[in-house]
């Protein structure tokens, strides 16, 4: 279990990497030890040869054997004055297998020779050549047994390995503690904060407070803090919307009953002999019918989501004309002109009631924006058919949308641009168009006016996200 943790894996990796580094250090070290060992034998052999030179090259056989034994060699050869002399010697019972020249060895040669010596277990006789100390001659050459050399190298290697193990363990322990303190503990803080927040996302007290010292971990905590803050705000907003939906559903239920009664009286008005009443009665009946349908849809929305569109083919011009007539009456005495540019034969496939609501919201918003300026204005509705669908645009000469409204354009209770506005109209309109597989775009906005585009696809497909703004003047 421990090895599956970040700390455990880091500990094992640290030990492995430190041991690898020690191995890379071990090879040059053992090669240097072997070279020093052989050079010391040459130096001791040179000192032993001085005893013979001091006695005019006459020495007792026992003393010669003792000198060779103390020097750790079997014979000594000196080259002086261009002459090679056997200074000290003893019987050699085996042939010489290798000759090593230590006068100018390369590092790779020393390391290879050292590794080969550790690999060979059997003792053998070797010849070693080097420079005499203090320039006491041109060359010194000794013959020696490798048993002592290999044992000394093994002893040195074991001490190096033990030292490497201690250093590795100490280094791994220090790094382990450092990782626990500076990395693992902050990560646990983030994980604990996420688990605590998941238990009660609505509780703002459970939002993580960034406190990590490391830049990367602090950025992660700050990102999590921003995410949790937005999520908590969204959850609170959805809770308010749910409560509002329940209230609207109850109001719509009662309003539907009232409108149903009004619809019965409006039906009787159609038989009136008054020409003005007879002309107004059909529009009144249609308006009340749409109000009843809206109440039904609101009740459905309170129970779940907006009902799916009932697609059918219909002419666009009469629907737009009906919307504009209703808005013209609502405008009253305000100087607002309405224009339509809809081909008479243009038909599209959509839910006529939902599209009526969408266009009503867009034209009403445009009318209210113009009325707020106190100046005359114009609202124009155009429609056209394209290869992949239909595009309906609603353009006004109002003051344009403020930056805050553009930033939260299709979000309920955040995209309102009028004082007291809730932004629900655009949010609902965008949802209705997405239900058709289309999108509601803000094509442009600025001091010269605003233009919204309703894009309806010819083929029903999964709805894309709305585009808040394509270009702003």
From TrEMBL:
| Domain Histidine kinase stretches | 250-460
Q: What is its EC number?
A: 2.7.13.3
Source organism superkingdom = Bacteria
Q: Which UniProt keywords apply?
A: Coiled coil, Kinase, Membrane, Phosphoprotein, Transferase, Transmembrane, Transmembrane helix
Listed PROSITE patterns: HIS_KIN
Question: Sorted alphabetically, which SUPFAM superfamilies does this protein's record hold?
Answer: ATPase domain of HSP90 chaperone/DNA topoisomerase II/histidine kinase, Homodimeric domain of signal transducing histidine kinase
Listed SMART domains:
HATPase_c, HisKA
Gene3D superfamilies associated with the record: 1.10.287.130, Histidine kinase-like ATPase, C-terminal domain
Compartments in which it is found: Membrane
* GO molecular function (one): phosphorelay sensor kinase activity
The parts of the chain that form a coiled coil are: 217-244
Chain segments annotated as transmembrane? 6-31, 160-183
> Does the keyword Manganese belong to this entry?
no
Question: For this protein, what reaction is catalysed?
Answer: ATP + protein L-histidine = ADP + protein N-phospho-L-histidine
Which Gene Ontology CC terms are recorded?
membrane
Q: What is this protein called?
A: histidine kinase
Q: Which organism is it from?
A: Vannielia litorea
